[in-house]
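Structure tokens please, single chain.
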Amino acid sequence: MIATELPARFAKLESDVARARGDFTLFALFLREDVPDRWDLMISAPWASADQKEALDYLVNRIKSDLGPADLTQLSRIVFIDPMDASVRAMNQAIHVEHGSVEMRDSSLFLIKLAFIITSKGPSIVAA
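Here you go.
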């Protein structure tokens, strides 16, 4: 699959999952130096933090059904990160995007070779 097609396919998935489950603080595809042919799917969302096993099962099933097994094999792993993690907060400050795709190369943030940031936004604050 062409590298530019993968982010577009995952951006559609991210948008659909956000409508069904709730917003993401971070949703990104990362290509690491040590695994140059497989992507890490980085997920940060309050709903995913509550039950990571259930969130993983849900996402794997959505990837298989919405995108197909071939896209699942493009991933080396799915990583869940707490929305309040310092790295997530730094990414949210550096990049603001929702349901899009911002390309990053050779960044020390998360130690990545290449990344497609599909959503990066701070958590919603609900007034009491």
